[in-house]
Protein 1
Amino acid sequence: MKPILDVKGLTRIHGKSCDGCLAATGPKVGGNQCPHCGSIVACADVSFQLMEGEILGIIGESGSGKSTVIRLLYMLDQALAGGALLHGGEESAIDLMALNRAQARQLRDRHMGIVHQNPRLGLNYQISAGGNIAERLLMSGNRRYHDIRRIASELLVRTEVPVSRMDDFPGTFSGGMQQRVQIAKALSTRPRLLLLDEVTTGLDLSVQARILDLILELQRELGISMIVVTHDLGVIRLLASRTLVMKTGRIVESGLTDQVLQDPQHAYTQQLVASAL
Amino acid sequence: MNDLPLDLLLRVRQLRKSFFLHERGLGIDSSRPVDLEVRAGELTALTGPSGVGKSSVVKAIYRTYLPSGGEILYRDTAGRVESLVTAPESRILELRRREIRYVTQFLHFLPRRSTLDIVAEPLWQEGIPAAEAEAEARAWLHRFKLPENLHGVSPATFSGGEKQRVNLARGLIGSPRLILLDEPTASLDKHTAAIVIEAVREQLSRGIGMLGIFHDPELVAALATTEICMNGESI
Ligand SMILES: Nc1ncnc2c1ncn2[C@@H]1O[C@H](COP(=O)(O)OP(=O)(O)O)[C@@H](O)[C@H]1O
Ligand SMILES: [Mg+2]
Ligand SMILES: [Zn+2]
């Protein structure tokens, strides 16, 4: 198995930051706010590899820095330190943290997809569901109207959104259906890397189940590499082959998912697992 | 260091497992140091009273538990010997897909999948085409006398006995190199026990090596070449 993504030392701090930020925060201290300068260490020294075709889970309580990692990888925010090498394709590996805005946009449009917990962050509510997918296809360089319409309807079928609703606005859809439109949009450019941030949080159980099934099918059929962020152990157990555990902006433990769940090493992971069972 | 006699698939030396419970500041030794070997085409039985740590040993070999000490050497299909204690996680995942199978007492299955898919899944992982995998899965379900009308539905609503037979079919199907069995045969009826014995023997004769924990001494007698009693020494 080859790595598709090599993440090293990813760090993001909100605020001015000082020399003492990293030492004065983290799991040992129990907080992510620097007592010297008041900055928030959203994530620090995050390192991991994602293998081709793998689903990697990131679990941790709210505020532990999971979404920060996802936003950094999707280049929505700037890292203070660290790198993330994206491998694969014809080109040599690209450091996502070293791209300018235009390069970042191009790479995102061609090779990456993201699904946010809140569909409002991922969808444009001023245009139709089909239009949302078309917009992304246009950005990735596809300009043929008929192709675009066909691909959009195929994706909606694939994600179980009634094609008859293709021209309706996302705001008129149920939460689960909006989420599936977001997934269809993310998939439209056949990304090498898909980032999923709490995509089932807050949905009804039966709706959650269908979205989780869809994610597994996509992995099996298309072999897309994914990072799945959640605070739900059940989602991790179902989807992820390996899991990272985050607390106060740091990775405190990582391992095969069954190992992390059955033989957790870190005090925090033990607590997390014990409280879920 | 990594030398393993050619006839061995797996050699475990002085393997220990202990847990540290942070909340209680407490260490627990789950198993005393154990030595065992598995040969291609043979079944090594792991026996001993309950609580002695048999399952912990099996889980440590499979990396569901992190070993606390000792050595686990494995010879893969290509003939390379590697340590299952230090192999990277990605390598362990690869071995789980292609070579090393772990079968527990209960059927763990993805929800909302047909029984046929659940039994065929290990074959997909081995890279066998879907149609062939389905035919093979069907044959194994027939072998374990699971009525045809149950093949297409999820085992979620099956009886304990039906689930157990699905579990055994999924556990024994295909061509892994090493199968770890943790009491998948608890309280089998006589008829199913006979089917299991025949199926295990057939898979052993194809060169698959097995390490098995069995409740029933009769199964040990019928299947094992070697017995490692975790209270005593090898027989
Ligand atoms: N724009 C921001 N300004 C200040 N602090 C922020 C900002 N965004 C996130 N944080 C803080 O960074 C930490 C990590 O947040 P986040 O990555 O959203 O966590 P998670 O996704 O694990 O819930 C939290 O303490 C959060 O309040
Ligand atoms: Mg979040
Ligand atoms: Zn500071």
Protein 2
Amino acid sequence: MLSAILVMAAIGLVLGGILGWASVSYRVEEDPLVEKIDAVLPQTQCGQCGYPGCKPYAEAIAKGEAEINKCPPGGLEGIKRMAELLGVEPPAAEGMEPKPKSIAVIDENTCIGCTLCIQSCPVDAIIGAAKQMHTIIADQCTGCELCLPPCPVDCIAMVVVKEDVTTWKWRYPVHMMKRAA
Amino acid sequence: MGDRLHTFNGGIHPEGHKAESSATPIRDMALLPRYVVPLRQHIGTPARPLVQAGDKVLRGQPIGAAEGYVSTAVHAPTSGTVIAVEPRAVPHPSGLFDLAVAIESDGEDRAVDFTPLDWRNLDPSALRNRIRDLGLAGLGGAVFPSYIKLNPGAQSIHTLIVNGAECEPWITCDDRLMRERAAETLQGVAIMAHALGVKTVLVGIEDNKPEALAAMAAAAPAGVEVVAVPTRYPGGGGKQLTYTLTGVETPTGGRSTDVGIQVFNVGTAYSLYRAAMLGEPLLSRVVTVTGHVARPGNFETRIGTPLADLLTAAGGANPGAVGEIIGGPMMGFDLMDLAAPVTKAVNCLIVKDPVHFPPRPAPLPCIRCGACARSCPADLQPFEMYWFSRAKDFGKAQSYNLFDCIECGCCAYVCPSHIPLVDFFRFAKSEIWEREQEKRASDQARQRHEFKEFRLEREKQEKAEKFAKAAEKQKEAAAAGPAAAPADPEAEKKKAILQAALERAAKAKEGVTPKNTDHLPPRVEREIAEIDARREQVVGKEGGEG
Ligand code: SF4
Ligand code: SF4
């Protein structure tokens, strides 16, 4: 186990170094508009917009090829912010209320360790190796659901994230809504 | 310094209702059969549990350790057995449960050995670490870990303000503490002054507490000035008291330490005295029980005491009670569950009766009278912030310095339209926090996604290179002639290095495939460790390869 950790740590360091170096020396001239649009997108990387990730969708929007109401995880709020950013009228959006935030959970007793979900996860939030049980790092799961279809034994389920004292929010004062003119 | 007081803007004069609970001395409570000690009692990361169900504990034994920087320890309030470490009711406006250690007392109340701290000679950082492990947090209500505030740090602190103002109506725990334990409290103050290296120490007490003022003034050593400040809510707010005593304004979005001033509550000073002089962790605090109860007063209450038991100690609620408030009527919140325990943050339990706490009248539209702005001690414009919070235009609300609002409730108190302004500000603040949280999460997701793409691309290239190299080798082998002079020694060397690196990478790959566990925050790393442990259990020996 220790050697595994050391190897992983070493690999991590090396890759981190490469990434740092690559980001400096291969810095592509980014289109600032694309970056701004990408910043508004939720980075779920789910592909429900019809593009292979948030960045490609942002590029399509920037080129004027895509409508801005194609991102379900962003929801109405996302459309509103996108419209504000681009200075356009928010387009009609049906069924765009975002689902409650969920994360994927692997049933650890059923998992056969096939690594298919690891390959499908856009943000590397699944750990595990071949023939070993896999597990999802809750903090990093974006809830994109991309790992569900590849699993041959259907052992991944989406679980709604429960509210706790840290994520609890003060509600909109209701008595005002009744009276709001 | 104290002879020239400054007057902050705004403020109100609500009825004090102090006499109800301030007349009788602090009472001790009988040992209870059960205590529930939440692990999240302070601002920051909750304490990490150190015990599990079935463990025997002694009074003062740590049951939760500080986790990360902004955190502090929690301790067992008595000796007995841990019956559960699980989510329990806690005093929180949501009524949600939170992780807590439930302890069944054995009735003996045996304690661990407490060793007093040699605070004068201890290295400052060692002293602070001890204070962290003794679980000290601000008892004025903010429960910020005290050890951090005792670090003079980069900003040099020149003045220590000790807050005994206790401006909220109904609450009298600090008043009784100062009356009865002035000398001990001031010893705690001396330790604070020592840790911060300050020369000027000001103790601010509202002038509606003459006995406390007298007791503190009598016990104050040279160099500590006890100052009577005019009674006006919220005169005990950190920024307000700082201004009253020194005339120094705390910058927007900043803290008093930015201007070289540190503020501590008197209760915290007393607990520091116990920590340093007796070596005792923060095991109990003074809590006011008042309002519609049979025998209101103040109680030395162990942290973890169920509020229902505290209420019983005060004779129970009178008939006709309509609920309870934790904290004061201005800044407190409605208690959802009397099973919730007293925590370090709980200074007061008020039982409501319909006369003093009538239901709020239905709000009317804002008439823009400006009364709220005149009453605001933070010099804000509540009606503007209300307007934009109500419209969920949070950016605009923020541009009116929403985050400088201390939620004192003055504006809602004076509003002729009975608008629950603070409710809107709390709502807007938590929405903004959530958005910031989401933003951070999505930034992280973007980075991880980009890294994955980069990794895939690199792996593809590596593979291609390998193939190319293999093909080349074959070709070379086929055309192997002794005449083939080594082409370019430089290129040859590079190739060798590359080859070695590739081999190393391939070797490393044999052991483990995933490379997605680098640069992780400690929380996630802990999660992974837990997962590993579980995996060990599930997969057993057969999966335990190195
Ligand atoms: S006091 Fe109330 S009615 Fe007057 S301006 Fe403020 S919010 Fe409006
Ligand atoms: S609650 Fe906020 S806005 Fe209202 S008076 Fe207090 S500080 Fe000002």
